[in-house]
Specification:
single chain; alpha+beta; Cathepsin D, subunit A, domain 1; 2 domains; 13-stranded mixed sheet; two-stranded antiparallel sheet; 8 helices; about 20% helix; aspartic-type endopeptidase activity; hydrolase
């Protein structure tokens, strides 16, 4: 990579990311960015449907909005123009709205970068576009100094966005996104901000950490620390896991347990990514439905799910009792034709697309969920009546849209 090994610690002591204030003075060698929470605004939420130190570091305060958006403040240019950004481990580029963004309504609701007001601005002009799960942004690359948590990253390339067509960006509490992913997924071959922080010697260790505070009554929503770990927000030792594929912060999962019981999802190993840019836990619908059922989350009645259970449920159960391989059952009953897998993040075979043999057909998808549910219930030695009672209840917690694989 040309830089020291990068390490990421997601200190999931809470679940919220948003910036309120930039702490310009490094405390105990850490560069900090603090987090704060904001009152829930249901109307906008519906419209949008995102001390001591162990090493030299810098901290940025974060704000928490709906436990969905965690953002903090940075400065771009000389003198610095302030922007509120999401610190996103699921992307690698820095972008903010451009003052030349005239045709996207979202740009009129957020701060915009004005190149003429910065004495350190340098023109690049390369055209790029980035697709996110909630929309796309596009236009050209520029270069300027970027201030993060009290340190200045010099000659940083970033995107001046002149198109933000998604309504999500219009109602968002952030102006832009600061990507913390690997350079392998950076658009336009731009060197990410974090890489330059390390190569320019702005941090003592190639480590950044998140602390996310889920308690809305507290003033600070959390913080991101660049260059070290804040011991005030954790007890004991950290567990390190290797990054299995550069691009996203991707790692191997050994198992997914619900109520202490294995779901069997990762029987042959599966991959997942740590994505600070989303508030959602994503995974195969069959597993997510079981999680929702366990925590009492409401769902949508699926007619396809109920149809599969009523018409094919007994046959599926009989095949499982005969110890037929679960991945082959939906093909045997005629509901699926194996055709490979589909990913959510391009290029990643993650936990989201672990279900081998999935087709686009809704009935096939419903069958696959039923197989997973029955397999887990059989592992608990449940009776046939209890198995079908459980599955019928599960059908009320899921929409069998094959693209819907998320839970909050």
């Amino acid at each position: 990579m040309g830089t020291p090994r990068l390490a990421l610690h997601l200190l999931l002591l809470s679940s919220v990311l948003l910036f309120d204030a930039l702490l310009a003075t490094p405390a105990e060698g850490l560069v900090r960015v603090a987090l704060k929470k904001r009152p829930v605004d249901d109307a906008q939420l519906l419209v949008a449907l995102g001390g001591n130190a162990e090493a030299k570091g810098h901290v940025v305060a974060l704000k928490n909005y709906h436990n969905a958006q965690y953002h903090g403040e940075i400065g771009i240019g000389t003198p610095p123009q302030n922007f509120t950004v999401i610190f996103d481990t699921g992307s690698s580029n820095l972008w903010v709205p451009s003052s030349k963004c005239f045709l996207s309504i979202a740009c009129y609701f957020h701060a915009s970068y004005k190149a003429k007001r910065s004495s350190t601005y340098k023109k690049n002009g390369k055209m790029v576009a980035i697709q996110y799960g909630t929309g796309a942004i596009s236009r050209y690359v520029s270069q300027d100094n970027v201030q993060v948590g009290g340190v200045v990253v010099k000659n940083q390339d970033f995107i001046e966005a002149t198109r933000e067509p998604s309504i999500t960006f219009m109602v968002a509490k952030f102006d832009g996104i600061l990507g913390l992913g690997f350079k392998e997924i950076s658009k336009g071959d731009v060197v990410p901000v974090w890489y330059n922080m390390v190569s320019q010697g702005l941090v003592g260790s190639p480590i950044f950490t998140f602390w996310l505070n889920r308690h809305a009554g507290e003033g600070q929503g959390g913080e991101i620390v660049f260059g070290g770990i804040d011991p005030n927000h954790h007890n004991g030792d950290h567990t390190y896991v290797p990054v299995t594929r550069k691009g996203y912060w991707q790692f191997d999962m050994g198992d997914v347990l619900i109520g202490g019981n294995s779901t069997g999802l990762c029987a042959s190993r599966c991959a997942a990514i740590a994505d600070s840019g989303t508030s959602l836990l994503s995974g195969p619908t069959a597993i997510i439905t079981q999680i929702n059922e366990k925590i009492g989350a409401p769902g949508v009645v699926s007619q396809e799910c109920k149809a599969v259970v009523s018409q094919y449920g007994q046959r599926i159960l009989d095949l499982l009792l005969k110890e037929i391989e679960p991945s082959k059952i939906c093909s045997l009953v005629g509901l699926c034709t194996p055709n490979g897998t589909q990913g959510v993040r391009a290029g990643i075979r993650s936990v989201l697309d672990h279900e081998v043999g999935r087709s686009n057909d809704v009935m096939c998808h419903a069958c696959e969920m039923a197989v997973v549910w029955m397999t887990n219930q059989l592992a608990k030695n449940q009776t046939q009546d209890l198995i079908f009672k459980y599955i019928n209840q599960a059908c009320f917690l899921v929409s069998c849209n094959t693209n819907e694989r998320i839970t909050s």
